[in-house]
Every structure is written in structure tokens, then in C-alpha cells.
Amino acid sequence: xxxxxxxxxxxxxxxxxxxxxxxxxxxxxxxxxxxxxxxx
Amino acid sequence: xxxxxxxxxxxxxxxxxxxxxxxxxxxxxxxxxxxxxxxxxxxxxxxxxxxxxxxxxxxxxxxxxxxxxxxxxxxxxxxxxxxxxxxxxxxxxxxxxxxxxxxxxxxxxxxxxxxxxxxxxxxxxxxxxxxxxxxxxxxxxxxxxxxxxxxxxxxxxxxxxxxxxxxxxxxxxxxxxxxxxxxxxxxxxxxxxxxxxxxxxxxxxxxxxxxxxxxxxxxxxxxxxxxxxxxxxxxxxxxxxxxxxxxxxxxxxxxxxxxx
Lengths: 40, 260
Fold this sequence. Notes:
The structure holds 2 protein chains of 2 kinds. By secondary structure, chain A is an all-alpha fold. Chain A contains 1 helix and no strands. The longest helix of chain A is centred in the middle third of the chain and has 37 residues, at 3-39. Chain A is rod-shaped, with a radius of gyration of 17 Å. The relative contact order of chain A is 0.09. Chain B is mainly alpha-helical. Chain B has 13 helices and no strands. In chain B, helix 1 crosses helix 12 (240-247) and helix 8 (174-184) packs parallel to helix 11 (218-232). Chain A binds chain B through residues 1-3, 5-7, 9-10, 12-14, 16-18, 20-22, 24-25, 27-28, 31, and chain B through 20-21, 24-25, 28, 32-36, 82-83, 86-87, 90, 245, 247-248, 251-252, 254-256, 258-260.
């Protein structure tokens, strides 16, 4: 496997990972905020 | 002589931002991508640091604020398991679309296999429970509490191989104790030593870390090496990207096998 391909794979995997992780993070943050609001 | 710099939040954030990326590259290298093998080799060191940072963070938070232990278990387990359950759901959906028979998978391999990085969440939750029980209910000095928690962690490491737990689920765990010990002696280290001494300790420990001697002392030496380095580096504010990556580091770690 060429070095260029490898770095492309690493870049794509990292970007996808960051995107999914961010989605999970903001979803949980939103849930926490809603819970705090509901508790008054 | 320059005094030691504290191992503070911006430094923790830098490590939290970098470590999941190293672990992801480690797993990509394991898939046969030789081009990143050298970065990938740092993956094992990253796991030692994750455990050490947890041990350090819990102990230093307790030393700085004794009320930290009140409600600790609920808060920390929620922070740990909420992303895990979301990741579990994501993995179930992902495997569903790939036509995997998940009932058979569950019966054959168990829940551990569903999220491949879940072992870290489970192990860390055991250590959180050990920490909470000891620091909440043992009426003694912080030193005794640290020793007792370390004894429980070592107990896990000793018992784990006898109950069929794979080596990579326990052989990094002693690093947790190193983090706790550094937190316990943090103020003494920073008042008694200066920067050149920490730098000398860093290079000596680095030489020992690089020398191939198996897994027995690596979980102890590796985090100690990085802690010495952290005491040498000056503190500075984090950039926005470091703040962002450190805020999602646990999620990045848990979910990594979907993109991989």
C-alpha cells in the first residue's frame, strides 16, 4: 500500500471519526441541557 | 533555576486531543497500512497515558476539593457510559445495514464485542468504583486512600488473567496507579525539584522506556516519563482545535472502529 494512499486513509478515517464523535457529543450535550431545563 | 510548571488543564487538553488520534492510527496500522506503522507503534503508550491521566485527574481533583467525591460515581459513570450507549446503538445500526446476524454475534462473542473499545469503558468504570468506595468510606489520610485504591487496581490486574480476561484488558492498568501517585506528590515534586532535574529524569526514563523489556514495567515507566515532560513544558492557552478535540476525545476513542 502506497504512502499516499495510507495518509489518505488516515485522513478520511480521522475526519469521519471526528464527525461522528462530534455528533454524539452535541446530542448528549443537548439531552443534558433538556434534562436540566425539565428539572427547573 | 526555573521551577517546574504545573500539569494543568491546557496540558491535559493537549494530551486528550492527541492520544485518540494516535490510537486510531495504531489501529489503522494494524489493518496493514505500513506507512503509518511508526506512529501506530505509539498506540500502546497512548493507552498507558489514558489510564495514568484518569488516576491523576481523580486524585488531584479530590486533593484540591474534598467535596469532589460527593456524587462522584453518578456523574462520572454517566459521563463514561452515555457516549458508550450511543456508540453501542450506532454499532448495532451499522452492523444491521451490513447484514450481520447480531443475535448470533451476541450469543457467540458477548456484549464486549459489539463496541470493540468498550473494554476501556468497563475497566475504567471498575476503577471509578474502587476510587469512590475508598475515598468516600475509608476514614484516613489521602496517602492511605491512594495506597488502598492502588491495591484494588493491582488486585484487578492479578485476578484478571485467572478469570479469562485477555492481557490487553489489564496489562495497561498499573498506569492508573502511577497517575494517582504523581497526583499525591504533585505539590512536593513542584516545590522540591527544578526544570533541569525533571528534564534529566525525562531523558533517563525515556531511555528506559525505549529499551525493550516487555510489559512488566512499561505501564509504570511510560506515564512517569510523560509526567516529567509535562512538568518541564511551559503552560500556555489551548488553541480552538485542541479545545474542540479534547472535548470529544472519549467519543472519538469509542466510535473509532466504525470509520476504520
